Protein 1
Amino acid sequence: MRPHVELIQEDDYVWHAAELVGGEGRASERRLSVDEEDGSSSLRLDFHTDWGRGPGIHHANTEYYVLEGSMTYGGREIGKGGYVYAPKGVPADAITFTEGTRVLHYREYGDAGFDPVDGLNAPRWKDAYEDVIVIDSEAMTWDAVPKAGPMPGLFIKYLHVDPVSGFYTRLVHAQEGWTDHRLAHHPCYEEAYTVQGHMEYNFGTLDLGTYFFRPARVKHGHFTTQEGGATWLLRSDGELVNWYTQNEWVRWGGEAVNYGPEGGRMRWSMASHDLGRGTAGRSERDLKELQEAVLYQREQGETDDDYIQHGHGTDKSVLAIAKALDAARLQGGHGHDDHDHDDQDHDHAALDWGTDPAALEHADERTDRLRHNWGAGRPWREGDPVPAPILSSLPVRSRSTGRWDADGM
């Protein structure tokens, strides 16, 4: 599984010689994210000369999306918005790119391996089950997303949906003013590259050339879409279900050992209230649009709380600590000395924290082959337990041209 990358501008990546086995020409790649376990990669390619490769079989599910320039697959030329999906183990036709072409290139569940074949009649791998897909996405129409979040204005073009795993690749457009005032997490991973426009949220600014890779269950949100809307090429390794959170807070602390006044003052971090100020960065327009999303939800008959920016209003973390202390006092035991009573008298009432943490995990969460990685996606169906979110305030890579709010989770 890949590490959490959020949010980074592609210009902050270095160029490498492109790993395009068996091709002729010269190209460079930026490695947006890489899975070192199975070779899966999300890449930005620039072709410095005309480049081509004959028919062959990819060792990974392979995708190309043209940002600028042109691509020819099997004699069919497609410009900006051209998309090719070549499943692993399936013979693919010859492909070429013209000098100056810029593309997004993805490999999933495999590495860059490529076996040349004489033609498309070459035998498939025995476990292959899909066919090559070639699409001119510029010629497609936008469809409204059935569940667009808290308000209308989100549109989609489906490029590929895996009929077995549910893995899907799509273009998503949020029109100007589309807003989501809640934090969300999903059962699958989610990654996106911004191909147009501008959106603000707690992890930074989504503008042209920004990228994120979010493992399953990582909390994120508070989106506001700016002038002209925003468009992404977005991928997930399963159906993207939204589990929403409001009135969220994060607090952590510890005993200072060799820093702070007198070396032992309690130090708290990651809460705007602790800093004695509200979190800066949201414009008046943002705050207005976030509240408009709340009002729209209420018009639809949905229960929704007002949006309150981090660091303002009641500090919910302090209330939670007070409630926990009250629960401990009310349920925590009898207060008798050990030597005065038999073993039965030593039993203490079990603390009731409202939810059994085990109920928030899939049954196989700690036993399956991915048990070492809580951020790996798991299949989820309506009625299954909803897994708890992962709070990831410090991704492995993060450098945005916009704002960073550590309370973004």
Protein 2
Amino acid sequence: MSQSERLVLATRYRLVSELGQGANGTVWRGHDELLDRAVAIKELRLPDELSEDDRVVFYRRTLREARAPAQLRTHNIVEVYDVVIEQGRPWIVMEMIEAPNLEQLIEGSGPLPPARVAHIGRALLDALDIAHRAGIVHRDLKPSNVLLDGDRVVLTDFGLAFSSGSASLTKTGHFMGSPAYVAPEVAAGEKATPRSDLWSLGATLYAALEGRPPFERHNVMATLSALANESIPAPQHAGALAPVITGLLEKNPTRRLSHARAADRLERALTGPRRARRAETPRYRVMVVIGLIGATVASCGIGATALIVGMTKNSGSSPAPPASDPPAPGVPAGVASSTLAVRARNATCKIFVSVPGGVSTVLTDATLVEGEVRKYDQPRLNAVIYDASACDVWVNGRQKPLGSPGERKSYSLNRAAPGD
């Protein structure tokens, strides 16, 4: 165990395990021993070449900007609990969300369908609108800062990325931001504004639809050059979202879509497919033989003076039922005596398993190899299956049904309660 993993911050936040690293620090799984709950802790680190004055500015900015999003109580923004100064640097204590981020989803599953991207975009737009009304600019909106917890879309790292007023080049030439998602005016040295967050939203949605951001190149300088000099490549898979994407990625911020106009276009993209789906009748078609005479149409039904409707089966055979999942191999040995057993159906079977208590003990936080089996016999367990279609799961010897692709399932298990 590393020195950091033995660390307890402010006598209450214990670091449990590392979740990931980024340009500005490390995110840890933690445990709040005072309130007995899981938390996420971001350890912020600075580039070694920063001067002492820059470090002081950074610390002050972190404390100020961490307090602001802590006041934003909304479903789509991660909750900030605390800021702690330990070992000479800030640590941000946040809500723990057991969910993959959008970047991981894109890398693992490829581009997302427009309907799902529209849902993500609407939620992020709502989060930005609330923050901007409170005078807070995110500055670093990108797929890795968007968590997808089932239908919940959560924007993280509000105002916590070091920027010295904006994401720009420092005196040493080191880019302090995410160049593939930064607005052109910010890359040129101007101050970040709500409109620059809307550009970053457009680049994030573009990446979700196309698999990569619009101006990403092989290094920072090439990306910035493309951002400044090249036209936006037309999205190929946006469908009804194309007007939203191109409007958000308008290089001139004064012509860029506003919150209200972006919301209107997203609503159109969301409601259009739904109307089409409601119009479909998979097993029958409706033929109106005599027109509607003096009809009144209400949301709950149709009233008419004369209406003759013929319901006929579609020609040909009935639609085939949905294909079932391929049969899985036999039950692994030892499942009957296990509190939990998991077998990877494919390479996207990611699991998190821990033993609850005063200090949570992490047993597994990994993606399993196809066919790999993990069995646990502890009487009490907490488990998260990140893709319920990718893992066979047995709880107290009983197999659980498969879920949908990308569906996340959580279990609180007790051997004394079969069927949990």
Protein 3
Amino acid sequence: MTSADGGGGSGPWHRPVLAGAVANLAAGTLFGWSLVAQPAADALGMSRASASAVFATAIVVFAVVLLVLAPVQRRSGPRRLLHVAAAAGGGGLLLAATAQHPVVLLLGIGILFGGANGLAYGVAVWLAAQVPGSRRGSATGLVVGAYAAGPVLLGLVAPPALDAFGWRPCVAVVAMAVAVLLTVAAALTPGGRPGKGRPSRPHPVPHRDVVLLWIVFAGGTAPGLMLFAHAVTVAGDRGLSARAAGLAVSALAAGNLLGRLTAGVWSDRIGRLPALGVALTTGAVSTVVVAPASSSAPVLAGFLGTGLAYGAVSALVPAATADRVGAASFSAAYGAVFTGWGCAGLLAPVAGGWLIGLSGRTPALLTLAAAPLIAAAVAVVLLTRRARAAAPS
């Protein structure tokens, strides 16, 4: 079985997938930053914008590391990169926990922990890409689902811990947990360099497919990223109480996790591109449901559906990339594809704030948030045609 059609050959695959899931469980704690952003900013005399810049820097560093990861991983191997991620992630969080100046916080979270995220996530999805094609969706869903599980777990335990101990001890504990989890992931990861002892070699990357997958990732995740950034505001504008708004945010997060875990399994049965089509349709319908809503039920349903769509796209795009370019070429191709998510992560919250302002008087204008999904759907159609044209007759 070649890397282009099978994805990494035969042999046990459960342990590498477990390694990827453990690595992403650690890395995903980055998205719990909002839990400590305000107390950290208050302690260091930072504005809210400065605290947001810490997270934005981490996202940019995350995407840049993924973009350049392929040649580094070929030279060093995944196990060594996870050891580096353990040192950078744990060290960066410890540095942040002891920070007395905003620049130190930026270095610890934005640079070191952001870089560790790129290393850990990049290795994790690469491990999933090596799984044979018939199981690749399930493997990828589990690995990227673990990334979403990290902040969910933090959201459950962090508030009482922060009240009891303060933000610095809590960040220090997370630092130790991140370092330990990434070290365990490294121990579970196969040793040696990628491709060592394998007959397959990287195939030429079909650049047009990479561009189309970039559009799918950017357009498919933009509405979800927009809602994640403004969930409480959107729920409040639709008349929800603070408690109901909290439930809506929980529905969004739960949908994200559930979409990641289930979409991959489903795509192994019906195909990656059809599953992407369903995910994009779900996202569009959910946006249309939320826009004119004035009661809890449709808002909760719309938030859940948006989370499901976002999580599904997040799981399906890596698997679809590996299907198209082959496991041997996955890291290089996916590094480029992932910048689509990075661009959406930086631009969608800004566009969402502008759109929410416009929709204050005309709520239906919020349906414009679904516009990126149209571009993503067109890209899926074009990918489907190219896949059919490339299939042997």
